[in-house]
Description:
Radius of gyration: 11 Å
Number of helices: 5
Oligomer: single chain
Amino acid sequence: MRKLVGANVARIRRERGLTQEALAELCGLSQQYLSGLERGQRNPTIVTIYEIAMALGVSHIELVQPDQQGAG
Length: 72
């Protein structure tokens, strides 16, 4: 699950044209935390997932679902 959330955050962040630093500023987390999250090394809380989702402009559900575009 950590790797899934991290991969989704990284993919959506890149789709939005954001750096880790820019996303960190938007959601109030450190760039180091986001880096670890994207690498699947952090275990985010529900609140953290929600805050990142709001900063990215997506539903928190999108961060925990498998990427449908890459399926099949």
